[in-house]
Amino acid sequence: MRSPSSLKLLAIRSLLKDEAFAISALKALPMELFPPLFQGAFDGKQTNILRAMVAAWPFRCLPVGALMKIPDLEIMQAVLDGLDLLIKQKDRQRSCKLEVLDLWDAENNFWQVWAATEDGVCPPDIIGESQPAMHLPIRQGNQVVTVMMNLSLQSVDLCLLLKYFHSWAKQRKDVLQVICEKLEFGALPVYKPLMLLEVFEPRSIQELELNACWDLRTFATFAPGLGKMRNLQKLLVNNISIPSEWFSNIELKEWCFTEIISQFSQLNKLQQLYLNGVFFLNERLDQVLRYLESPLETLAITRCMLSESDLRYLTHCPSVHQLTYLDLSDVTFPDLSLALLGRLLERLRATLKTLKLMGCMGMDFQIGVLLPALSQCSQLEEVNFMRNSLSMSILKKLMQHTANLRLLTLEMYPAPAEVYNVIGDVMPDRFAQDCSELLETLRVVREPKEIYFVSRRCVDCQGFYVYNLEVSLCSCWE
Predict the structure, then answer these.
(1) Is the pLDDT of residue 472 over 50?
(2) Does some domain include residue 35?
(3) Looking at the domain assignment, is residue 115 inside a domain?
C-alpha cells in the first residue's frame, strides 16, 4: 500500500499535468494541498495555475518571496494577475482568506512546515504558527490587500520586475498598500528615487540606507520623501558629493542644505543614525539633532569636519545621552574640542558599549585629555583607536586607564609611533617588541579577550602589520 505522503504527491502530479482540471478543482481542494500544489506550479512556471491559486488562497498570507530566489518577471506577473482577480471579486469566497502578499526574499518556515507533514494534514496550531509575524496594516478595510517587500537597489536603473510592479501598484492605490520596512540604495539612481514612494506607504519604512555616493541634488529632491517616513528607526547615509557645476552656486547649495536638514524634525522615532562623509554637518549638527524626540541608541558621524560649537552641542543634546554606540572616526576636530568630547563620554559612562575614534587624534595630549572620562565608561565592550599617531608612552597610559573596562571583548589600537623608521616603514622587530610590552602593561590591570595592535598601511603591499594574542611575531596582512 502506498503511504499517505506518496498519495499526496501523486495527486499533486496529476493536477499539475492537467491545468484546466487543477484550476476547476481549487474550489473543492483541501487546504492541505494548496502549499505543495503552489510550489509545484511555481517550480514548473505554470502561470495559469499560479494565477488561479492566488485568487483562491486559503491562508491569510502568501509568502511567495521565499520561493523567488531569482527575480522572475513572468511569475511576478502571474501572481499580481491573481491579486487582480481577488480584488475584483465583489463577494470574496469564504475559503479565500488572502490579505497579505509577502515578497520578502527571506527564509520562511511556512513552506517547510507543510513540506514536513507526512500525512498531508497540518494541525490547526501549526497553521497559525507557520504564518510569518506581521505588523498591523497601516490601512484597514475589507478590500485592502497588503504587499510586503524590502528593496535593495544595487543598479542605477530599476529592473524590469520593479518597473512592472511600480506601474501595477500605482494604478491600484485605492485597494492596495505596499509595506516596505527596509529600503536600500546601493547605486546613484538615474531615475527619481522619490517615485518609489508613490506606491509605498512611507510610514512603513523603518530602515533607509543610502550606500551609494549620492550627489547633493539627488538627496535634496528625495528629502521630502524622507520627511514622510515618520516611523523611520535607522538612517544611514554614505557620502554626499556636490555636482561640479554647483561649487560656486552658494544660494543653490544652501537651499539643498535647508531642504535636507529640515526633514530631520519629522523623524521622531529615529534610533540609529549613520552620517558618513556628509560634509554639510559642520556648524549645522544642532539643526539635525535638535528635534529628535526619541533618544538615539547609535550615532555615527565619520569622514567630515565638526566645529567646536557642534561638539559643545553634543555634550548637552538630550537625544544622545543614552547612546550605546558612538563612532566619530575620521572626524577633524578643532584642537581645543577634545575636552568637550571627554565631557560627552562622561555623560555616556553608564550606557556606552562601542566607541570608535579611528583617525581622529594626531597628538598624544589630545587622547590624554580623554583618558579620565574613558576610564569611567564601565559598560564598554568594543573600542577602536586605529589610525591615530600615538607614542608608546601614551599607549601605556591608555592601557592603564582601562582597568575598570572589564566588559571589553574587542580592542583595536594603533602601533606605537616608535615602530616606524625615518621614511615611515615598520621595523618588524621593534613592532613585535613594543606591542608585546604594551600587552604586558595591560595584563597588569586586566586580562584582554581579543586585542589587536595595527600599523599604518604598508607602502609596498598595502597590507598592515598586526599583533594580537595569537601571534608572537608580527606579519603584514592584507
Answers:
(1) no
(2) yes
(3) yes
* 316 within domain boundaries: no
∠ Cα 256 283 255 (to 5°) = 15
Which residues neighbour 171 within 8 Å (Cβ) at sequence distance 6 or greater?
A: none
Domain that holds residue 75: 4-130
User: Which of 216, 207, 160 has its CA nearest to residue 188?
Assistant: 216
Q: Are 439 and 448 in contact (CB under 8 A)?
A: yes
The highest-confidence range among 150-164, 325-339, 376-390, 460-474, by mean pLDDT, is: 376-390
CA angle 174, 180, 181 (to 5 degrees): 140
Q: Provide the whole-model pTM.
A: 0.89
Is the dihedral angle over the CA atoms 90, 93, 94, 99 positive or is it negative?
Answer: negative
pLDDT in tens, 327-352: 999 998 776 678 899 999 999 999 99
Say whether pLDDT at 90 is over 70. Answer: no
The percentage of residues in the chain with a pLDDT greater than 90, rounded to a whole number, is 60
Is position 294 within any domain? no
CB 99 within 8 A of CB 57: no
Q: Is the dihedral of CA 99, 103, 107, 113 positive or negative?
A: positive
Q: How many domains does the chain have?
A: 1
